[in-house]
Design brief:
145 residues; mainly alpha; two-stranded antiparallel sheet; 3% strand
């Protein structure tokens, strides 16, 4: 299955180019697109490399386990500013909270990396790449204004 994590995502070349151009080595990006990619990249990295442990302050995984302020802010930015659909926001949140062991929404596992469909992280990256540039054009401004 193609994923951004294994460098075979749907828009991989564009994604990597934008990450290089828009995301600073430290701190927040100065554009909506850059900050959206920074946030989803951080969340995906946390899950795939740390199992969400840092996002939970290494609390035991569970649907009621709170996320740290930094990870909550990044998730909220994606929902409020990048207009990430609720089902993706919820899936990513539950996956980080539960370490993938019990996250459920609408009766389905939050993320099933053994399946053939794109996971929520990849769907979120696709959403960001496919909608934010269009929103900037439709709203008549330059990216970052």
């Amino acid at each position: 299955m193609p994923t951004y994590y294994n460098r075979t995502g749907k828009h991989q070349q564009e994604y990597e180019e934008l990450v290089r151009k828009l995301i600073p080595v430290t701190g927040k990006a100065s554009t909506l697109l850059g900050e959206s990619l920074r946030c989803i990249g951080n969340l995906a990295y946390e899950f795939y490399n740390n199992g969400g442990c840092n996002a939970r302050d290494c609390e035991p995984p569970g649907e009621d386990t709170p996320l740290t302020e930094d990870y909550t802010e990044q998730l909220d930015f994606l929902y409020d500013e990048a207009k990430l659909p609720c089902h993706l926001w919820t899936g990513i949140r539950l996956w980080l909270q539960t370490d993938g062991q019990g996250g459920r929404y609408n009766g389905h596992r939050a993320l099933d990396i053994s399946s053939d469909h794109e996971d929520e992280f990849d769907q979120a990256i696709n959403h960001i790449l496919e909608t934010i540039p269009l929103r900037v054009v439709v709203e008549g401004g330059k990216e970052g204004e």
